[in-house]
# Entry
Amino acid sequence: MFSQTSIYQSLLKVSRISPSVAFKVVFNTPDVKDMIIDMNTNEQLYKRGVDAKGTELSAIGGDYSFVTKDIKSRKGDIYTHITLKDTGDFYKSWRVSIMHNTIFIEADTIKDGDDLRQRWGDDILGLTDDSKDKLINYAVVKYRQYILEQWKS
# Structure
């Protein structure tokens, strides 16, 4: 008798949701990918000058030279910490891909023949714990939306 009710039918729909499919649907949306890139480039590198571990880039690869600081200050650019943004090409090269319930953050780290990761470390690509928390909170909302869509269909 209960199996004939709309509540039971709704529960069946929700129980059939695949966690891996939900993950791919949520994290493959452009807004989530854009959020990941913005947090990594704009929030972490540009505004704070930190890597995924929260370590200041100047503590890893050294500070800007006096000449670079002078040039950046004249252009109105941030010079008080390392941003890894000069021409903007590095920031524009970022992409996010999803594979097997894993988020991959990739970028072209080769600039002027040098790999930025050699000087500032592999953790220039990746999210800090604060950024991960923001992403999780946003993803929870997206998961709820996805589940509601599946429930209504």
The CA atoms of residues 61 and 115 lie 12 Å apart. Residues 18-152 form one domain.
